[in-house]
Amino acid sequence: MKIVIAPDSFKESLTAKQACESVQSGFAQVFPDAEYVHLPLADGGEGTVDVLLQGLEGEIRQTQVTGPLGEKVNASWAVLANKQADDGKTVLIELAAASGLDLIKLEQRNPAVTTSFGTGELIKEALNIGATKILLGLGGSATNDAGAGIVQALGGKLLNKEGKELPFGGAALADLASINLDDIHPRCKEVEFIVACDVANPLVGESGASHVFGPQKGATPELVKSLDKALSHFASIREQQTGVNHSGSKGFGAAGGTPMGLSLLFELQIKQGIEMVLDVLEADKVLEGANLVITGEGQMDNQTLQGKTPFGIARRAQMKGIPSIGIAGSLGQEIDELYNTIESTFGTVRSPQPLEQVLSEASNNLTRTARNIAATLKLGAQIFNEK
């Protein structure tokens, strides 16, 4: 019996690899002779680089760049060697590494001034070393600047009516008068640039970057409205100069509108993060011959259907006729639609507990739940075989 264990991380408690180990520990108590294959996953957010490097050969690098509030931070990124080309390089970058929400204390969160400039500096490093493909994960951003900082880091000029460069932050975009791309990095148009995200939100409007994601980054209701107007103005200026308006483009609301700025520089491809990860890790080959897939993440609910890891891998398994089981730290109230793809779901928390306790006991809870699922499967097989 081949069992593929393919979870995302359980945020703040277990990495995806640790989750794999906990699930196997529980299942192996009941099925010690099964073949267990670990496929730790991510959907484009924090941990994506680590996940991809567990399945591929690569080198982690660190570069000091500009953090979301202008401070210096050490950001990790990775370089892979392309199998298809001797001189090609694939670079993996997470926006969260340089411009992430986790880099800012709660009381300092302010998307009016946070910048994606540091992510642009990482991209510049990738271009300088000869990258032929760049994979950028957009999860976990602290920014709402529509990728303006990235444009500035790569040589673009965002100018006000006086011809002066705009300061950092999404609020400054309200003063944008013109965009000058004459001095952008010469290799911008030479690379294949793939953005991985798990949302399809547009740039502006009630379902756009500012309204949906701004509050978690520290935006007040008043700031949300002004940021939305600023991003809309950015889109209008871009339309005046290029004839293209991305205000309503699918996925352009991800990471505070980061695809907007990127689209000025690169021939951009936007993919669901989990689909990109599954393709890079050749998940379809891993699933061949499997009898069961076990997936999961910290929280599973109706949002899981919007391109999250459990839904992505379960859908791939379903296409091959392989059943899947989902295990989460907690299950939301709206999960009925999940059952069209994932046969059954389980929560690991036994009773109401303080968050600190839930996080500290995550591994034991996951192992125990996996063991109980395995025992139930074995008992069911015995009962029905007897009949």
UniProtKB/TrEMBL annotation:
Keywords: Kinase, Transferase. The keyword Glycoprotein does not apply. One of its GO terms (biological process) is organic acid phosphorylation. GO terms for molecular function: glycerate kinase activity. Gene3D superfamilies: Glycerate kinase, domain 1, Glycerate kinase, domain 2. Belongs to the glycerate kinase type-1 family. This is Glycerate kinase.
